[in-house]
Automatic annotation (TrEMBL):
InterPro entries: Cro/C1-type_HTH, Lambda_DNA-bd_dom_sf, TransReg_Diox_bact_type. SMART domains: HTH_XRE. Pfam families: HTH_3. Residues 12-66 form the HTH cro/C1-type domain. Transmembrane segments: none annotated. Keywords: DNA-binding. This is Transcriptional regulator.
Amino acid sequence: MSDFLTLVGARIKQLRVQKGLSQARLAELAELQDSYIGGVERGSRNISLNSLEKIMSALGADPVEALKFGKLDEVVDLSEEAAKQDLLEIHLSLLQERSLPEIRLVHRMVKDMFDTFDRKEERES
């Protein structure tokens, strides 16, 4: 998996979730297999331009939207739990291709950040 495929997959997933579609429904609309959609969203499938066009058409979006990675940080009007789950899955897909030392470094950094947040909250209480 490449970082590019992971980003494209995360963006497609974000657009799918925004539309309230399951992977199975998107696959049906795009006339593709749902396992293929899952692989694309995980970044483990090398998506063809033809399939990208089908998926984006099924999402009612211009194909260039799949390449707007900056929008991965945007949280849309979802319930808090759905937005949380969406962001967690995006983070997981970003970490998927990283080496174990890189993942451990990210883990330590996040843990240190949470420890700092917790200490700040304790001082303010």
